[in-house]
Amino acid sequence: MSKNMLFAGFGGQGIQFVAKVMAYAGLVSGNNVSWLPSYGPEMRGGTSNCAVCIDKDPIASPLVTEPEILMVLNEPSYDKFINAVPENGTVVIDSFLVKTKSDRKDINLCYIPATQLANEKHFNGLANMIALGYMLKNVDIIELEWIYKGIEKCVPASKKDMIEKNIEAIKIGYEFTA
User: Fold this and answer.
1) Best label site of 14, 46, 49, 110, fewest CB within 10 Å?
2) pTM for the full model?
3) Structurally, how many domains does the chain consist of?
4) What is the H or E stretch that residue 4 is in?
5) Residue 26 structural domain
6) Tens of pLDDT along 67-82?
7) Closest of 57, 53, 60 to residue 26, by C-alpha
8) Which of 48, 106, 54 shows the shortest CA–CA distance to 82?
9) For the segment 146-165, what is each residue's pLDDT rounded down to a tens digit?
């Protein structure tokens, strides 16, 4: 099992957090993991992406130039990374914020209105986790139990009340049908 993933969006959308959850989930499940964040100096509103590799074998490089799995939560990230996904790869797209539809037939395109669902369900700021739930439903990456443990590791003690909200958001995405 080798998975090279890229999470991308604007700063403030929780890109680094969702990638960290995935990395911790990979780690606590007994895999080798690399986590390589990248973001602009402007933080909120600037570009943000994070590469995550999960593998049973040692990972040679943390760079992900051809993500097998791509999550994009904004149009600029979609434009930048959609053509980097290799044949048979999967792209999870927040269709509420990304209006462009890909014409690629060689990849699995998974559209979910994550931001809209988050707003409707009063889960503001958790579109990232809703998109993660949908990703986990569509790609065999890791078991949900490990994701939940990753959330427990990543949510700081001062925000422990957010653990259950994050888990609920993942369930919303996992149960979403297009």
Assistant:
1) 46
2) 0.94
3) 1
4) strand 2-10
5) 2-175
6) 999 999 999 999 999 9
7) 53
8) 106
9) 999 999 999 999 999 999 99
